Amino acid sequence: MGAELGKYKACVSARSTDKEILKHAQDGGIVTSLLGYALDTGIIDGAIVAATKDFAAKHPSLIMRDNSNWDMIEPWRPIPAVVSTKADLLAAAGTKYNISPNVSMIKEATRSFGLDKVGIVGTPCQMQAVRKLQLYPIGARDVGAAVALAVGIFCMENFPYQSILQLVEDHAAMKMESVKKMEIGKGKFWIYGKRGQVVQLPLKVTHKYEQPGCHVCLDYVANLGDISTGSVGSPDGWSTVFVRSKIGDSVWANAMAAGVFETQPIEKVKPGLELVTKLANEKITKNKNTLESRKTFGVGKALRNPYI
Amino acid sequence: MGLLSSVFKKNVSTEPPKPAAAPSRSADVAAKPAETKKEVKPVADKITLGYTHLSGCTGCTVALADNYAGLLTLLDRYVDLKYMPTLADVRHVQKVDVSFVEGSVCINDKLAVEELKETREKSTIVVALGGCACYGNITRFCRGGQQNQPQHEAYLPINELIKVDVFIPGCAPTPQLIRNVAVMAYLLLKGTKEQKDLATAYLKPLMALPVQGTACGASTACFCDLMTNVIDQGLCMGCGSCASACPVNAITHEYGKPQGERDLCIKCGACYNQCPRSWFSFDVVENYEAINEAIMAALQ
Ligand SMILES: Cc1cc2nc3c(=O)[nH]c(=O)nc-3n(C[C@H](O)[C@H](O)[C@H](O)COP(=O)(O)OP(=O)(O)OC[C@H]3O[C@@H](n4cnc5c(N)ncnc54)[C@H](O)[C@@H]3O)c2cc1C
Ligand code: SF4
Ligand code: SF4
Ligand code: SF4
Known about the structure:
The complex is a heterodimer of chains A (308) and B (300).
Chain A: E1 10-16, H1 19-24, H2 30-40, E2 46-51, H3 53-58, E3 79-83, H4 86-91, H5 106-110, E4 118-122, H6 124-135, E5 147-153, H7 161-171, E6 179-185, E7 188-193, E8 198-202, H8 203-206, E9 227-230, E10 239-243, H9 246-257, E11 261-265, H10 273-294
Parallel strand pairs in A: 2-4, 4-5, 5-9
Antiparallel strand pairs in A: 1-10, 1-11, 2-3, 6-7, 7-8, 9-10
Chain B: H1 2-14, H2 25-31, E1 47-53, H3 59-65, H4 69-78, E2 79-83, E3 96-102, E4 105-106, H5 110-122, E5 123-129, H6 130-135, E6 155-156, E7 166-168, H7 175-190, H8 193-212, H9 223-231, H10 241-245, E8 251-254, E9 257-260, H11 270-274, H12 282-285, H13 288-298
Parallel strand pairs in B: 1-2, 1-3, 3-5, 5-7
Antiparallel strand pairs in B: 4-6, 8-9
Helix pairs in contact in B: 1-8, 1-13, 4-7, 7-8
The complex binds flavin-adenine dinucleotide (FAD) and iron/sulfur cluster (3 copies).
The site of one iron/sulfur cluster has 13 residues of chain B, from helix 9 and helix 10.
């Protein structure tokens, strides 16, 4: 294929040099460190991240409003929020494997939050959304040029909240509030409890709970982020980083010069880009097949294809 | 994709799409005495633009004007504004390359209907500008009774009376999308072969909108378009673009999925068209960086 990893100027394996961030981060703390550095240096004046229940309780004015019962925000339910301090960034670190509509805040960030330079983290589809609204700003007046740093995270699939609930509480027999970390890696879904217990579920079990919209997704490594990152390809505790756009290039170079990250050449680490390429191709091929089968889904009737 | 990247290699990295036909102004200015400056402007290569104002609130006009310096550059280099209420002296429809139409058309108003038809006859490309012209938008809710023409009560998106070539949805449409379409229309009509290809790719989805119809039948947009064509088709992935795009905050997300307060919806079509799962062109969006730069360079 050749296009599965998108355009990039550089690819490295990297890790934050901030021990505190590494303690809270999902992988190498790339996202939190990068946004923190961008805040410190004025590259951005706020960032849209996936915050949590605790954060929402403390800062009800910084989060997205939704229709659900506000007193009943569950543990591990991400809530898009606009943060502008490193402490708040840190509080939002870590992967929540369910939907956080981060782009819903992008206009508001430039309005009531008053940001001129917005940072945003998101899945590949959310990076696509950001770029579409820059090129075709239909309901995004003056927003496109305010996006100062878009950090993409790799993504094979996402889950509805209730799927995660089902996986954790039914399949793994754990309480949501007792979970310290969730992770997909090495072919398994891992659930780490606060008391040290670890449960692993085979992906065979998790597949059917995936968000259906993910099955037409043709991007694994956030091809449209300024910088994109994920765990795959790098050793435990490290992240694979693609530096993609001119903005990404300059932010990464400055962050490196400031000592925010330590890096290793991607060619030197195991399993390296080979695995990233393999997984990207698997995802794209599978989902292209889904799109293909949607053409003949009914009897002489197709399901829609969003791509033109 | 290959085609477009070659466009960018040629026109962006080396020289931004100072549309090939336009002579380099700085060179001319330097070479010639100041008095002749006006004469050497590439007027002949501009496209002609008209602006027909029907039943719209002037928000679209303001959005166009809100390009500030960008609008002046557009008018200076690429576009000859032939007629337009508010911003030009000539108000009546003339023969032009591109006409923007703001507002829906009141079918009880003979003059408006005539003007719309005349606009169609005299323009190569008709662009429906804004939610009202594209979909009816808030004017769908009109029941008449307003002084001094209380009998004016039925309003249609212009697409229902004439053939429309391009939609610029949004209430109000954004200055940036108007700017982008204007630059692309210029490239389409006056650019090199490669620039024409780029403009065609960029405009393609906006040109598909007038023919594809909407969920509620005829050409009424509303939150239902997301429901029927994205969510119910199993395509929504919860990015949040729709909620962000809605001008009246009719959309919120519940467990990551959009919920529309349909009584709040003014039927503008912004949510559906902003959604990356309504229409999405990899050819165009993957080149976002080069295209954004090209447009900015054109307006420098
Ligand atoms: C649904 C999902 C699926 C993923 N699948 C893969 C995969 O297949 N392969 C792979 O290598 N990596 C995958 N990742 C990325 C990986 O889990 C890490 O998020 C990434 O490596 C960043 O780690 P970090 O230590 O640099 O970030 P951290 O410093 O921990 O920061 C993570 C950032 O991501 C934000 N975030 C958390 N959850 C979400 C969410 N649901 N939506 C949007 N933003 C969120 C947080 O607010 C935080 O700012 C996935 C992430 C998600 C959310
Ligand atoms: S798989 Fe694709 S659509 Fe689903 S969350 Fe990840 S990036 Fe978005
Ligand atoms: S913009 Fe489209 S894909 Fe994104 S949340 Fe709304 S309906 Fe879903
Ligand atoms: S829900 Fe909002 S954005 Fe969508 S059509 Fe209605 S008013 Fe417009």
